[in-house]
Task: structure prediction
Amino acid sequence: MPYYWSQIETLENLQYVAGLVDGFNQDRFLAAIMGKPLGKGKIVHMRNELNEITNKLEEEYLVLEEFGKTFNEKFATRNNQYFSSAMTLLRKMRSGTSKMVEIYRQFAPQNKAARRAAHAENQTMDLYSHSTMGGQDYTLPMFNDMDAYTPEVGELFEAMKRFMEHLSKSLKLCQVILEEEEQIRQDPDACLERYHFFKDEHRGMIKELLEAISLDSSIFLAENNPAIKMRKESKDEKQFAERGFHNLTESATVVLASKEMIEEAKRGEFTAPEIWLFDAHERSHIRRVREIIRTFDTYLPEDYTRKTLPAKYIACLLRWCKPREDKAFVQYFKETYEEAGGKLTVPKNPAVNQQKNELTKSDSDYVRLVEKWEKIA
Result:
């Protein structure tokens, strides 16, 4: 085990290190430099490297900023099982964090006896508080005017100052994102909303799983899937969502969502196409759409004599009920209508889509039909 601990895994760790970065100043810099004299060549090398890393850090900040816009809207991400949220964010600014650790380590005491004792006791010490560049107590240098030092030392200070300022900006952005995450985690409804949205986003993938596997598959065993295990141990879906937010991988959560959708279908309340086309948690909406299709002939004009249903009417329903996929909905409409004893021919998908593209919300048929449909309990 390393002598100095440097991993930042939690919001508390990050807040602590960010405070030390903000505390960087000229006196601390000079105390560190004087405590570990460096040759001119080393100082110039450090200055050049810091300038290069700071430029990269500026680019990484933009990446982190963009990533942060959607991070807390997602229920699960690819690396939740392997990295904490703090670690995930800091991986977006690798250049900056790697250099930060290198700087603090370079100016931390290298007491070999203490190192051996810590290793023997399997202990670590906090790198950041033990580094003169971080939180370690230091003695004010005899000469704290930068003019008393060589130009190279002054240039290194300016490079270090610029690096710390950009690092501080990035760490503060991480804090904002993690604080928002914690607020969401404390709101079970917000967590549940993100879980439902996750299932909606992955319905295409889930549909393929539904067609390929059954509940007897070993992938649905709790011991093989942390999401299923967590759901089994939670008293309800809301508690699961609260516990699982940003703690499960996408792949594990997709398998759980697939299991839930299969179970919904097996209970007989909804068919697999209904679960896939609509939000499974919007039960009343699914029931209403199904009832409309089963009694669709009642919405036709009394003098309607054609042998094919009007594509425009189906387009009105398609626009109103907002399914996941238009083509799949038309097929679902056909199967449901015919199973209910419908005698007229259901038009093909191209004819329905053409009508949908020409349809407006102010269309008289659309307004009339929607008014009737929305009255259905």
About this structure: Confidence is low (pLDDT under 50) at residues 118-123.
